[in-house]
């Protein structure tokens, strides 16, 4: 990491700083990673943030670290974390390279799941050392994020000569490095989004429906159920499928669709899409009997649109 080997003191708080760390983009991720790196002995020296919320977050998570411009972050830090939204990353990298902000030998780390290191090519041509370190974790922007990094998997992509450095940084933050090939990054990120982001939507919809049904504390009802379902799915995959779709209970599914259409029509499309996918997977696993699948799939097809009243009493 371009730092001389030193014997570390027993007390981690007394360890000499090895790299100065900067953060460009004080969203939920950057300050948490910088704080984790500080606990590992590195020294955050600068952070940039545009919104008031970002500045408050930086002050809370990285007290005494000055909030400066992105160019000043680049000037002060040996290791720079680019923690901006995916769509903003290419333009940011190009701008930093074009303005001469990138210094030769500077470690430039982005945390985008979508991109590998090729998005950092403009900075690499200016002499930067490119790393892609994506924590497979959801962030809140609070101190709990640092704790959650313990044992968190990171999707790591880097040039072969920097692989050990990338993996070392992840380990120092408490994470577990998982090597992702450059051309597999979009698929890797899609898989995480499918599991984590869509899960939040499904849980939120489920809680809303339970409240509508009169359940006073839907979170208490769902917590044990969803925890068990997640554990079973991680252990057994499709073999953990249960419920009316996997059983082929077409009448129950039809009742679900009717109620959703009455009380929460915005949820119908999602319910039908997930039910069709569940039916396909249950069939492939032999959980759903083919003779029951036909009626079920008819219900799912008919449920896509409300049955229209025939004109003139005939169809």
Major sheet details? 7 strands, mixed
Approximately how much beta-strand content do the residues carry? 5-15%
Note the overall shape: elongated
Strand line-up of the largest beta sheet: 2-1-3-4-5-6-7
- Given helix and strand content, the structural type is alpha/beta
Low-pLDDT runs: 1-17, 306-315
Number of helices: 13
Q: Level of helix content?
A: 40-55%
Distance between the termini: 75 Å
Number of strands: 7
> If you compute it from the alpha carbons, what radius of gyration comes out, rounded to the nearest whole angstrom?
25 Å
Mean pLDDT: 91
What attributes characterize this protein structure?
disordered N terminus; 7 strands; 315 residues; 11% strand; seven-stranded mixed beta sheet; alpha/beta; disordered C terminus
Structural write-up:
With 315 residues, the protein is an alpha/beta fold. The protein has helices at 30-39, 52-61, 70-76, 89-98, 121-125, 144-148, 163-172, 185-212, 218-236, 244-247, 250-263, 268-284, 290-302; strands at 20-24, 43-48, 79-82, 107-110, 129-135, 153-157, 176-179. It has a seven-stranded mixed beta sheet. The termini are far apart. Mean pLDDT is 91; it is low at 1-17 and 306-315.
Provide the fold topology.
Blueprint: E1 20-24, H1 30-39, E2 43-48, H2 52-61, H3 70-76, E3 79-82, H4 89-98, E4 107-110, H5 121-125, E5 129-135, H6 144-148, E6 153-157, H7 163-172, E7 176-179, H8 185-212, H9 218-236, H10 244-247, H11 250-263, H12 268-284, H13 290-302
Parallel strand pairs: 1-2, 1-3, 3-4, 4-5, 6-7
Antiparallel strand pairs: 5-6
Helix pairs in contact: 11-13, 12-13
């Amino acid at each position: 990491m371009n730092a001389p080997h030193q014997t570390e003191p027993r007390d981690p708080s007394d360890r000499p700083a090895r790299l100065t760390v900067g953060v460009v983009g004080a969203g939920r991720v950057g300050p948490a990673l910088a704080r984790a790196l500080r606990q590992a002995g590195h020294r955050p020296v600068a952070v940039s943030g545009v919104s008031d919320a970002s500045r408050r977050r930086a002050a809370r998570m990285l007290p005494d670290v000055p909030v400066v411009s992105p160019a000043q972050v680049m000037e002060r830090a040996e290791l720079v974390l680019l923690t901006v939204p995916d769509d903003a990353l290419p333009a940011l990298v190009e701008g930093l390279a074009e303005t001469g902000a990138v210094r030769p030998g500077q470690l430039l780390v982005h945390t985008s799941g979508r991109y590998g290191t090729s998005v950092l090519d403009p900075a690499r041509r200016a002499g930067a050392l490119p790393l892609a370190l994506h924590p497979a974790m959801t962030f809140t922007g609070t101190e709990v994020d640092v704790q959650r990094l313990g044992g968190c998997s990171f999707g790591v992509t880097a040039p072969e000569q920097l692989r050990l450095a990338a993996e070392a940084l992840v380990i120092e933050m408490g994470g577990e490095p998982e090597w992702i090939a450059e051309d597999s990054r979009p698929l890797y990120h899609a898989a995480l989004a499918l599991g984590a982001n869509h899960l939040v939507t499904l849980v939120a919809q489920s809680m809303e429906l339970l409240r509508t049904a009169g359940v006073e504390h839907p979170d208490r009802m769902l917590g044990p159920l969803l925890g068990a379902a997640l554990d079973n799915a991680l252990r057994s995959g499709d073999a953990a499928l249960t419920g009316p779709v996997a059983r082929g209970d077409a009448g129950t599914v039809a009742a679900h669709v009717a109620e959703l259409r009455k009380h929460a029509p915005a949820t119908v499309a999602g319910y039908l899409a997930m039910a069709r996918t569940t039916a396909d997977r249950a069939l492939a696993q032999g959980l759903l009997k083919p003779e029951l699948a036909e009626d079920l799939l008819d219900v799912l097809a008919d449920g896509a649109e409300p049955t229209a009243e025939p004109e003139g009493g005939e169809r």
